[in-house]
Amino acid sequence: MAESLLFSFAESVLGKLATVVVQEASLALGVHSELQQMTESMALIRGVLSDAEQKTPQSSALSQWLRQVKRVFCDAEDIVDDFECEALRKHVVKTYGSCSRKVSRFFSKSNPAVYRLRMAHHIQDINTRLTKLASQRTLFALQVIDRDTRVVHVRKMTHSHVNPSNVTGREHDRNEIIKLLVQDGDCQSLSVISIVGMGGLGKTTLAKLVFNDTNIDECFQLKMWVCVSNDFELRNVLIKILNSAPNPTRENFNDFETEQLQIRLRETLEGQKFLLVLDDVWNEDPEKWDELKEIIDLNVEGSKVLVTTRSRTVTATMRNKSSNLYLLGCLSEEDSLSLFVKYAFDDGEEKKHPQLLEIGKEIVEKCGGLPLAVKTVGSSLFSRFDKKEWESIRDNEIWNLQQNERGILPALKLSYDQLPSYLKPCFASFSLFPEDTSIHCSHISTLWEALGFLPPPKESESMMEVANHLVHELWSRSFLSDYLDYGSDSSFTLHDLVHDLATYIAKGEFERIDLRNKKNSENAQHLAFMENNLLAQAFPHKGLRSVCLPEGMNNEAFLITLVSRCKYLRVLELCSCELESLPYFIGKLKHLRYHNLQCSEKLRRLPDSVCELQNLQTLNLSGCVELQELPKGIRNLISLRNLVITTKQVDFPDKDIAVLTSLENLYICYCHNLESLFNGIQLSTLKKLSLFECESLKSVPFHAITNLKSLVICQCPKLELSMSLGSQIPDSKLKFVYLGGLPQLVTLPQWIQGSANSLQFLLIEGCINLKEFPDWLVTLVYLKLLSICSCPNLLSLPDNMHQLTNLQKIDMTGCPELWKKFKPRVGQDWYKISHIKHVLNDDSENEQELSE
Question: Quick one: CATH architecture of 170-327?
Answer without folding.
Answer: 3-Layer(aba) Sandwich (3.40)
